DNA sequence: CGGGAATATTCCAGTCAAGGAATATTATTG
DNA sequence: CAATAATATTCCTTGACTGGAATATTCCCG
């Protein structure tokens, strides 16, 4: 997995921008308005998003229209694939745990040992 | 989405740790060894992973065994869900694009306008 | 060409995160 | 209890990131 994508997303404002752009392309000014940012900050964050490939720009007259690019998010999704097996394991363990409770009548202890 | 999870993953060493732990729990020393880190750095990074919930610790005698927790990764996966529609859109646009090429015989231009 | 709107860039100050080295802590063993 | 192994914590320094304010750039329009 690529760290630059995660790094770009790890900043609250930028994450908000990505979520905003999920519903369609937006202008710098619109983004700044909706997030309560000053324009320069918006531009700076958008630059980082752009450099990370999470966003692409189209110039239209005076304006710059930013649009979400799916590829980096797809890459994360793909990376998560290798962990999905774990979740099922966890589900198995949960059902084992429930069975255990039923059998022994112990009070549930959240600090119980794993493994 | 939660920024702290992304922040924890955005550091290369920590991301490597998560990938290491995908194959099972490990000791601090083992993690440090496999990643070529000094022990204090390993402990510091593991602390951050632990505080973000990506990892849990079990004390066994002298050792601390770190184990991956799936929940934060599941949360990311869940967050991505809201973007999955976009990918299909993109596929549609790609097939439109291919049709367009076939019809007009233009040379492919990677800088073509979106929308 | 001049003015104004939309956006980008620069400079600065404050804060935060990471590595290095040293030290503290905890548990084992004899 | 002393010695040692495994791990955590602290202190320090340095580099990176963020926001603010000011300024530069680009483009449209009359």
UniProtKB/TrEMBL annotation, chains A, B:
Species whose genome carries this gene: Cohnella lupini
GO MF entries: DNA binding; DNA-binding transcription factor activity
Listed PANTHER family: TRANSCRIPTIONAL REGULATOR, ARSR FAMILY, TRANSCRIPTIONAL REPRESSOR SDPR
CDD domains with a match to the protein in the record: HTH_ARSR
Domain HTH arsR-type: 1-91
Domain of life: Bacteria
InterPro entries named in the record: ArsR-like_HTH, HTH_ArsR_DNA-bd_dom, HTH_MetalResp_TranReg, WH-like_DNA-bd_sf, WH_DNA-bd_sf
Keywords (A to Z) from UniProt: DNA-binding, Transcription, Transcription regulation
NCBIfam families: HTH_metalloreg
Protein name as it appears in the record: ArsR family transcriptional regulator
């Amino acid at each position: 997995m690529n760290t630059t994508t995660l790094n770009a997303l790890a900043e609250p404002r930028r994450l908000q921008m990505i979520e905003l752009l999920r519903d369609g392309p937006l202008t710098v000014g619109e983004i700044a308005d909706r997030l309560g940012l000053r324009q320069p900050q918006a531009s700076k964050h958008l630059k980082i998003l752009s450099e990370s490939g999470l966003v692409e720009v189209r110039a239209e007259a005076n304006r710059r229209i930013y649009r979400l690019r799916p590829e980096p998010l797809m890459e994360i999704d793909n990376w998560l694939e290798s962990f999905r097996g774990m979740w099922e394991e966890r589900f198995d363990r949960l059902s084992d745990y429930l069975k255990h409770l039923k059998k022994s009548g112990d009070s549930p202890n959240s600090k119980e040992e794993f493994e």
